[in-house]
Amino acid sequence: IPQSVAKEPGGCCSYRNSEEMARRNVLITGCSSGIGLALAVKMAKDEQKRFKVYATMRNLAKKEPLEEAAGQRLGKTLEIKQLDVCDEQSIKACVNSIPDRRIDVLVSNAGMGLIGPIECQTIEEMKTVMDTNFFGLVRLLKEILPDMKRRKSGHIVIISSVMGIQGILFNDVYAASKFAVEGFCESLAIQALKFKLQLSLIEPGPVVTEFERKVFEDGMKMDLSAADKETAEMFTNIYLKNYKQIFQSLGQSAEDVAEIILAENPPFRHQTNTLYTPMTTLKYADPNGDLPIDIFYKMVFQHDKVFSASLNFIKLLRWRSRKSFDLGKPSQ
Ligand SMILES: NC(=O)C1=CN([C@@H]2O[C@H](COP(=O)(O)OP(=O)(O)OC[C@H]3O[C@@H](n4cnc5c(N)ncnc54)[C@H](OP(=O)(O)O)[C@@H]3O)[C@@H](O)[C@H]2O)C=CC1
Ligand SMILES: CC1=C(/C=C/C(C)=C/C=C/C(C)=C/C=O)C(C)(C)CCC1
Predict the structure, then answer these.
(1) What are the φ/ψ torsions at residue 78 (nearest 5 degrees)?
(2) Antiparallel, parallel or unpaired: β 105-108 and 252-253
(3) 61 annotated ligand-binding residue
(4) Ligand 1 centre and the CA of 186: distance in Å?
(5) Residue boundaries of the structural domains of the chain
(6) pLDDT digit string (tens) for 7-17?
C-alpha cells in the first residue's frame, strides 16, 4: 500500500507536527478481531511509522484484544473508533472525527459469512449478509470517495474473497455478496482511475479467524428440516464434516494476510493463498464455466476419499516445512 499512496497528503492545520502530517491516515473497518485487527496492528507498528491507523469496530465493548495487540502504539499510531458499516450516521461521525476528514487508505474489511442450504435460510438473514458485505462497502465509499476525488489521492483496499471469484458449495449468498463487491469495484475502478485513485481487491482463501468459528457454529445449530433429506445430509456429512479440515490444511493466519497486504503494492485483484489458486485458476482456464463445477463435484462426491487425503497431504507438507523452519534449517 505505502508505495501506491506516495503523494504528500493534501490539507494541513489540524496536525500536531509535520511528522504526523506526513503519516498516511488509514481507516480500517471490522477491527475487533481477525484480519482487521491484524492489519490495524501491523500498520500501527510499521517501523518507518508511515501510518496513522484509525481502527474501527461497531461495538467498542470488544476493543480489549485490539488494545492488547496494539500495546505502546495505542493512542500514538493507532486510535480506536466506533463505526458500524450498516449505519451511515456512524460512518459520517467517524470520518468527521478524523483531522481534515483526510483518509489516505481505506480498508473495507468488515464482513460476515453464511453457509447452508437456502431452503433453511430466511431472506432476512440473507439481506443482513448483503447489507454488511456489499452495502457496507457502498456506504463507506459514499462518505469517503468524494473527499478522495477532491484530493485526487487515495487507495481503497477491499477485503473480498476467493468466493468473490468462485462460488463454493453451500456458500451461495456469501459468494453472491462478494461477487457483488467485485462487480461494483470493477465498474468503479475505471472512474476512480480518472481521479488517480487506486482500488485493490484482496481475495483470501480460508483464513483462521473468528469467521470460521462463527460460520461453523451457525451451520451446526441450523434447523435443516426445511431441506430435503439428501441436501441436509450433503450439508452435514460432506460440507460441515470437511470444513475444519479445509481450514487446517489450506487456512492462512490473519497475520499472513496482513503481511501480504502491507508487503506488496497490490494490483487490482490479489489472491493471498497460493495453496488455493489451483481452484480459482480453473475458473479463468475455462470461459464456459463447466470445468470448476465438474472438478469440485468430483472432489466432493466421487473422490471425497482422495480429496480429504490430499488435504491431509497438504497439511503434512506445511507441517514439515514449518518444522524444518522451526529447527532453523534453511527451508528447502
Ligand atoms: N476468514 C476467512 O476464511 C475469510 C474471510 N474473508 C473476509 O475477511 C473479512 C474479515 O473477516 P475475518 O477477519 O476473517 O472474520 P472475523 O469474524 O474475525 O472479523 C469480521 C469483522 O467484521 C466485523 N463486522 C461485522 N459486521 C460489521 C458491521 N456491520 N460493522 C462493522 N464491523 C462489522 C466484526 O465485528 P463484530 O466482532 O462486531 O462482529 C469483525 O470485527 C470479511 O470481509 C470476510 O468476508 C475473506 C476470505 C476468507
Ligand atoms: C476447497 C473445496 C471445498 C471447500 C472450500 C472452502 C470451505 C472454502 C472456504 C473459503 C472461505 C471461508 C472463504 C471466505 O471468504 C469443498 C466445497 C468442501 C469441496 C471442494 C473443494
Answers:
(1) -140, 125
(2) unpaired
(3) no
(4) 22
(5) 16-233+252-275
(6) 444 434 456 67
